[in-house]
Amino acid sequence: MVYKALGQQKKDNWLRLLRSGDHGAFARFIDKYKETVFLCCRRLGLREDETEDVASETFMAAYKGLQRYRGQAELSTWLWSIAYRQAVSYLRKNRKQLQLEAEPDEFRQAGSGEEQGPAAAIQGEETEKIVWQAVERLPRLWAMAVILYYREEKGIIEIAKIMQTKENTIKTYLFRARRKLKKALAPAFGEDVDVGG
Amino acid sequence: MLGRTLRSSSQAVPADFTQRMLRQIKQAEEQKILARVVLQERLALAGCFVIGAAAIIVMAAFPDTITAVFNSIVGSFTERGGALVSRIPQSIETIRDQWQLYTVFAAMAGFAVYSLVDLLAGGRLKTA
After folding, report:
1. Contact assignment for B2 to A42 by CB distance below 8 Å
2. Which end of chain B is more exposed for a tag (fewer CB within 10 A), N or C?
């Protein structure tokens, strides 16, 4: 109880410093969330140089917008929504065709090309690599929904707010993504691979 | 398994990204202050032009009215000033004799002090 109150007080102080434009507090904010922002940009299909530009724009927008942030959403959710908007807006401006919802031409199965049966002992980095490859092959919006749900542990309502769409659309993205992932991961992890539910 | 694996991974971020972001923010803040100062200067200049032009137009259009107004102001000023100065002790005879001149000097000195303070600490006071 006391620890929770102290933690909340510390968080409030940090937020107050952030809103006042304190550079030290904002440096901690960048350090805490930079991976998240880079992940968002990369998963939406931006190249490395573009990712860095959009990440910079995202943090600049966050710096300017922090004075208006009233804590109505979690700070990470608020930043995710800025990053998402910046990345989609960049894609709309700079790409002739925006294929965020397009199905991949061919859904290759992760782990194919190697002889890996269900019983293969795949652990650690190898597992991570295979799972990420499978996520990367999903349509970008599905992948985004999967990352927000499973990695960032956001709820459907929060994801819908971040991606500026309906909750049912997010549920559909997640349902389809799970089905695709299960199919893609089956050769490496077996037919009964657990992709959540 | 999916959640655990995705959470355990990390994203590669350029090592100096935070420092570069802070530099960008400082530059943006400096530009914002500069833009505000430039805007203030432009507004002041525009104000000088507009007020000057308006004064010339009014004087050209209504010369008699303007002369009457100025005579009235000067008359009132001299009358009130004289009444004020009559209260000053006789020892400050010089000021009593040339009070109009000293009033102008005082106004100039006040403006000089204001300009000096603005020059030395104006930026800090505006951004504080």
Report:
1. no
2. C
B28: nearest CA in chain A?
Answer: A60
Asked if the structure places residue A194 within a domain, the reply is no
Chain A nearest CA to B22, separation (Å): 7
CATH number at residue A58: 1.10.1740.10
Give the list of residues 6+ apart from residue A35 with CB closer than 8 angstroms, or none: B10, B11, B13
Cβ-count burial A27-63 (b if 16+ within 10 Å, e if not) = eebbeebbebbbbbbbbbbbeeebbbebbbbbbbebb
Q: What is the pLDDT of residue A166?
A: 93
Regarding whether A134 and A174 lie in a shared domain, the answer is: yes
Q: Which of B5, B16, B23 to probe the A interface (max A CBs under 10 A)?
A: B5
Domain residue limits at A179: 124-189
Q: Does B128 touch chain A (CB under 8 A)?
A: no
Domain count, chain A: 2
Model confidence, pTM? 0.65
